[in-house]
Amino acid sequence: MKHTYILLFSLLFLACGNKENKTETVENTATKKNIITVTKAQFESEQMVLDTLKTLNFSTGIAVTGMIDVPPKNKSSITTFIGGYITNTPLLVGDEVKKGQLLVSLKNPEYVEIQQNYLEIAEQLNYLKAEFNRQKTLFDEEITSEKNYLKAQSTYKSSLATYNGLKKKLQMMNISPAAVEQGNITSTISLYAPINGNVTKVNVSNGTYVAPNDVILEIVDIDHIHLELSVFEKDIMHIKKGQKIQFKIPEASEKTFEADVHLVGTTIDETTRRVKVHGHVDKDLANFIVGMFVEANIITDSKKGLGLPNEAIVSEDKNNYVLVLDETTTDGYQFKKLKVNIGQQDENATEILNPDILQNKQILVKGIGMLLEESGEGGHSH
Predict the structure, then answer these.
(1) Which tens digit of pLDDT belongs to each residue from 264-309?
(2) How far apart are CA 113 and CA 105, in angstroms?
(3) Which residues share a beta bridge with 304?
C-alpha cells in the first residue's frame, strides 16, 4: 500500500511538471510569434522607415467616372463651305495655333466660276440701278407705263439679291469681294483658325478632296479645360458647388489631381439615370488631353483623425496589425506585432481607432509587407 501511494505521488508530480513545461513552451512560442527581428543591413537594403501616428484628414467621397473636356465654344471643327482639293497642310497634331492663322488651302475650278458670276453681276448692277431710277422718275411723271417701271424694279432687285448672295458666299470662302471687283480672281481659298488652341485632329493630307462639312482639322483651346463627370441619381443630392474633387487619369498616370465642383446638372439622363457634374481644373497641373478617361472622388465630408500610411498596416486572418519598435539591439531591431482597429481609409492613409497603444511609439511604416511575407505568418525573420 505504501509503495502504491509513493508511485501515484511520483506520477502526479511528473504530470504536473510536464504540464508546467508545456505551458512555458506555448508562452515562449506565442511571444516569439509576435516578435520580428530585423538586421540593420536588412533595414537599410529594404529602405524601411520608422514613423509615429499622425493627425490626418480623412474624407468621405462619392466615386464617379467621366472625362477631360472643354466648353463647346473652346472646341472648333474646321470644315469648308465649298468642297475642294487640299493644296497646303502645314500643321500636325499638337501644333499650337492663334486665332486668324492660316490652317489649310484648297483648290477648285468652281471657286473661279463663283467669282466670275459675282464680277458680272457687280458690273451690271450700276446700270440696272440707274435704269430702275430712270423708270421710276418717268413713271412718277407719268411718261412711262407702270409695266416698264415694275420690270426695271424687278430686274434690279433680283440682280441685287444675287449680288448680295454671291458676295456673302465669297466672304464665307474667305475671298475678298473688293479684290474680285478689281479683277483679282483666284482658284484657291484658305481656311483660318477661328479660335486660339492646339490641333487635336488632322483628317487630310495634300491632294485629299474634302466635301462640304467634312471635318478637316479639329482645334481645342485647353485654357478652359474641365471635368465632365457622371453622378448616379441616388448620389446627386450630396453634390454641391465648391466641393473638392480628387481624380486620376488611370491610363496615363497614378498621380492624383484636384478640381472643384463648378456646376451640378439639373437634368437626369433617362437611359443611364445619371446627372452631369462640371468640375474646374487648374490647367497647369498636367498636360491633359481632351477625351481622357477620368476616375474621380467628389469629397462630400472631411474629418481629422489619427492614422498611418496604408503601407504600415497588414491584414491577417481578418485582423489588422502594425509593427512597433520594441527594442534596438547592436545587430538590428526587434518589432512587436500589435493588433489595431481601423476606421476610415483613403488611397494613402488609414485611421486608427485604438491609437492609445501606439502613442509615442516608433512604427514601421515602410517595408512591413515584405517582412511579413518573409517571416511566414508573422514569425521570426532573420
Answers:
(1) 888 888 888 888 998 988 766 667 778 889 998 888 877 788 888 8
(2) 18
(3) 57
